UniProtKB/TrEMBL annotation:
<keyword id="KW-0812">Transmembrane</keyword>
<dbReference type="InterPro" id="IPR002401">
    <property type="entry name" value="Cyt_P450_E_grp-I"/>
</dbReference>
<dbReference type="Pfam" id="PF00067">
    <property type="entry name" value="p450"/>
</dbReference>
<dbReference type="GO" id="GO:0020037">
    <property type="term" value="F:heme binding"/>
</dbReference>
<dbReference type="GO" id="GO:0016705">
    <property type="term" value="F:oxidoreductase activity, acting on paired donors, with incorporation or reduction of molecular oxygen"/>
</dbReference>
<keyword id="KW-0472">Membrane</keyword>
<keyword id="KW-0479">Metal-binding</keyword>
<keyword id="KW-0408">Iron</keyword>
<dbReference type="GO" id="GO:0004497">
    <property type="term" value="F:monooxygenase activity"/>
</dbReference>
<protein>
    <submittedName>
        <fullName>Os10g0167200 protein</fullName>
    </submittedName>
</protein>
<dbReference type="InterPro" id="IPR001128">
    <property type="entry name" value="Cyt_P450"/>
</dbReference>
<keyword id="KW-1133">Transmembrane helix</keyword>
<dbReference type="GO" id="GO:0005506">
    <property type="term" value="F:iron ion binding"/>
</dbReference>
<keyword id="KW-0503">Monooxygenase</keyword>
<comment type="similarity">
    <text>Belongs to the cytochrome P450 family.</text>
</comment>
<feature type="binding site" description="axial binding residue">
    <location>
        <position position="173"/>
    </location>
    <ligand>
        <name>heme</name>
    </ligand>
</feature>
<dbReference type="InterPro" id="IPR017972">
    <property type="entry name" value="Cyt_P450_CS"/>
</dbReference>
């Protein structure tokens, strides 16, 4: 009604303000989605891997009890004192990156990389899922081994190109800080407050680790686990 009854100049101003506000809303929505949707998927993958691998599960729980105990909540400041938990998260990012492909890039000039010609204007997709399972980079690539990150100073914040689930450089995922904090705190809270086991049928048949490829790399069949209070 305001737009219909106002002058053309006023209508243009109102439309511009509405456009800016809507654009800001979508930007904020994307930022929170990047940190929440991918985080919940990563926590689910981490729990699935830990439930399939009792020894890493026991090591993670022992570290949490030793450092945090069961009398207080985990805080963000505790993460730096939990190297094994950090290794579990890194190994989860390696095997199950939040997205299978990074956002496409476009070559601004024709270049040569390892004998391949990338022509100007070509779109380049980086397959981080395949990189995480490359046997030339990772020994026993298909095996869930958090210990590998206790022996090497590899991080996932863009400096080490063998593990870039969030991208690298100036165009690294803006949701990374939120996602990393959420994943560590949520996973630690689940492990320190509950004892987990698989239902009898799932334990007998094994956890279905089929992946559902999409915008995020989620489990095709949601994880089913049983929790009891510690």
């Amino acid at each position: 009604l305001v737009l219909n009854n106002s002058s053309p100049e006023c209508s243009l101003i109102i439309k511009s303000v509405l456009y800016i506000n809507i654009s800001k809303w979508f930007l904020l929505k994307d930022l929170f989605a990047a940190g929440s949707d991918t985080s919940s998927s990563t926590v689910e993958w981490a729990m699935a891997e830990l439930l399939r691998n009792p020894l890493p599960m026991a090591k993670a729980c022992d570290e949490l009890q030793r450092v945090i105990g069961s009398t207080r909540r985990i805080e963000e400041s505790d993460i730096g004192r939990l190297p094994y938990l950090q290794a579990v998260i890194k190994e989860t990012f390696r095997l199950h990156p939040p997205v299978p492909f990074l956002l496409p890039r476009q070559a601004t000039t024709t270049i040569q990389i390892l004998g391949y010609t990338i022509p100007k204007g070509a779109k380049v997709f980086i397959n981080v899922w395949a990189m995480g399972r490359d046997k030339d980079i990772w020994p026993e690539a298909e095996k869930f081994m958090p210990e590998r990150f206790l022996e090497r100073a590899t991080d996932f914040k863009g400096a080490d190109f063998e593990l870039i689930p969030f991208g690298a450089g100036r165009r690294i995922c803006p949701g990374l800080p939120l996602a990393v904090r959420m994943v560590h705190v949520v996973l630690a809270s689940l492990l320190i407050n509950f004892k987990w086991r698989l239902p009898v049928k799932v334990e007998r048949d094994g956890v279905n680790m089929t992946e559902k490829f999409g915008v995020t790399l989620a489990k095709a069949i949601p994880l089913c686990a049983m929790a009891t209070s510690t």
